[in-house]
Design a protein that fits this description.
Low-confidence stretches: none
Protein name: Branched-chain amino acid ABC transporter permease
Number of domains: 1
Membrane topology: Multi-pass membrane protein
Strand content: under 5%
CATH class: Mainly Alpha
GO molecular function: branched-chain amino acid transmembrane transporter activity
Keywords: Cell membrane, Membrane, Transmembrane, Transmembrane helix
Pfam families: BPD_transp_2
Number of helices: 14
């Protein structure tokens, strides 16, 4: 059992709880950096996709997990990031090193504008509003065909940066390292946000808006900031997804992507950075596991191939139902329970992580 003695308030906002935790994260960083030397190009592409999903997941996690606002329209902001990044490069001649952050800012500004009239919405009403935004975004891409390419799609050029070239098929290792660097920057940014006063304001608004107002938190402004930061990070993920896909259309970032993003962070574990990564691993590697399992079953049965339409969606939906019923805290929540059990054994209480009510008494006045 490890005891962490806190002697100042700085210990509550420390980047790592203790040196042992920092060591294990450093070891994990060494492994992910060396990954291209250990696996083939196909698996490198899958690992790159997992990191892109993790970036988008962290963006949505800030909104849903930290500030408590439900969104079913984040695919629209992925599209804003992807299209604006390519348009800046191909039509305005802006290099990637500038177009990439600008695409994130474009998505962030779009999110802030949309958040202005929706800050007073809660629960299902906010979900419906963001769902409508996702649907409208697909139509808007088609309407703006001279700029976006419409249903014919738009081509994302290879990334040129500091004399190096990054692409999914020609230079997969380089693209992986580039996405990894972006992931680490976003991770550091996310970690510092939740340690800052605005991050604590996010948590206050999530837990109880009435109590947050009583403590002097401007709820409307806090929600708008959360929405803007969330869309900014999601826009960066969308820009990278555009380069990963190389060609994308209005159907690439459809409503299914929005729902998948939300399900991803629920399965991974709401309210934690780890949950975004666990969910991204499930989303990214589940099709790969299904494909390998399907090929293995086909060989055992002595048939050419087995094709079951909608199998991936059905399995992921089943996983979601299982987690909601038996582990609402997600994969990371299960890991916390296992770790706590061994840390406190034999003094672990069965109801230590009992599900709490989703509202406080002060929330009943709404």
């Amino acid at each position: 059992m490890r005891f962490v003695f806190k002697t100042s308030y700085d210990a509550d906002i420390r980047m790592f709880k203790h040196q042992s935790q920092a060591f294990w994260y450093l070891l994990l960083l060494v492994v992910v950096i060396a990954l291209p030397f250990l696996i083939n190009d196909y698996l490198i592409g899958e690992a790159t996709l997992v990191l892109i999903w993790a970036i988008c997941g962290m963006g949505l996690m800030i909104l849903v997990g930290q500030s408590g606002q439900v969104s079913l329209g984040h695919a629209a902001f992925m599209a804003v990031g992807a299209y604006s990044n390519v348009i800046y490069q191909t039509q305005l001649g802006i290099p990637f090193i500038l177009s990439f952050p600008l695409s994130g800012l474009t998505a962030g500004v779009a999110g802030a504008i949309i958040a202005m009239p929706t800050t007073k919405l809660h629960g299902i009403y906010l979900a419906i509003a963001t769902l409508a935004i996702s649907v409208l975004a697909e139509d808007l891409i088609v309407i703006l065909e001279p700029i976006t390419g419409g249903v014919g799609g738009i081509f994302a050029p290879d990334i040129q940066l500091f004399g190096f070239q990054f692409s999914r098929y020609g230079h997969p290792d380089e693209l992986y390292w580039l996405v990894l660097v972006v992931t680490l920057i976003v991770l550091y940014f996310y970690r510092n946000i939740i340690r800052s006063p605005i991050g604590r304001a996010f948590s206050a608004v999530r837990d109880s808006e009435v109590s947050a107002k009583a403590m002097g938190v401007n709820v409307a402004r806090t929600k708008m900031i959360a929405f803007a930061i969330s869309c900014f990070i999601t826009g960066l993920g969308g820009a990278l997804m555009g380069h990963f896909a190389t060609v994308f259309t209005n159907e690439t970032f459809n409503i299914i992507i929005s729902i998948t993003l939300l399900l991803m962070i629920v399965v991974g574990g709401l309210g934690s950075i780890h949950g975004a990564f666990f969910g991204a691993i499930i989303i990214g590697l589940l099709p790969l596991v299904i494909a390998f399992g399907r090929d293995g079953v086909a060989k055992m049965l002595g048939v050419g191939s087995i094709t079951i339409p909608g199998l991936e969606t059905a399995i992921f939906g089943g996983l979601l139902v299982i987690f909601i019923l038996f582990e609402p805290l997600g994969i990371y929540g299960r890991w916390i329970k296992i770790r706590t059990y061994f840390s406190l054994f034999p003094f672990y209480r069965r109801d230590m992580f009992r599900r709490q009510k989703s509202y406080l008494k002060t929330e009943r006045t709404r």
